[in-house]
Fold this sequence. Notes:
The complex is a heterodimer of chains A (111) and B (112).
Chain A: E1 3-5, E2 10-14, E3 19-21, E4 24-26, E5 32-38, E6 44-50, E7 56-58, E8 64-68, E9 73-78, E10 87-95, E11 98-101, E12 105-110
Parallel strand pairs in A: 2-12
Antiparallel strand pairs in A: 1-4, 3-9, 5-6, 5-10, 7-8, 8-9, 10-11, 10-12
Chain B: E1 4-7, E2 10-13, E3 19-25, E4 31-37, E5 43-51, E6 54-57, E7 64-66, E8 76-78, E9 87-94, E10 102-103, E11 107-111
Parallel strand pairs in B: 2-11
Antiparallel strand pairs in B: 1-3, 3-8, 4-5, 4-9, 5-6, 7-8, 9-10, 9-11
Amino acid sequence: AQSVTQPDIHITVSEGASLELRCNYSYGATPYLFWYVQSPGQGLQLLLKYFSGDTLVQGIKGFEAEFKRSQSSFNLRKPSVHWSDAAEYFCAVGTGNQFYFGTGTSLTVIP
Amino acid sequence: DGGITQSPKYLFRKEGQNVTLSCEQNLNHDAMYWYRQDPGQGLRLIYYSQIVNDFQKGDIAEGYSVSREKKESFPLTVTSAQKNPTAFYLCASSRNRDYGYTFGSGTRLTVV
């Protein structure tokens, strides 16, 4: 069965520090992978996606993610976090025409 | 600009009443989805529809109903059979899995 695991429920980082949010997936075939961000009371916005090819993908707002097949991971990174990055982040796997979401990681940014 | 519109943003209903949440998209997407979001539980799929006049149950369909009479519209009815309807509801659409989902801004339903 397909599944997505985000092991960190909540992360706190200082503004300007680097960030890495972890995502592991379980899927038998080549995955389609996504990261979304959600601000409080809002819908989800697509940050980036991986289909194939270069395993390092660039997204909006300075985010990037690296696909590592051997580790079944698709971790999200940002070299320098801004206060406006505080939000909930969801990893997702696309299969057929459905998506499976992780339970999310809440990011707090402290001055 | 194309997008998904959910209305209303906030909805209050008395227990035992049915309520319908609206979702409209002008992206020409074939597939549409309804998710429920509760704190600490991520997103759970309620119903989805890949074509007009057809829809499938998701993981938590009990107490909910949908219709898909037009490509652009996928309304969700929360019935009185739903035991714990207070939640944040998100509608999404997609062309196919290659492009990911586009989400609406959500409807927060509170049942008192």
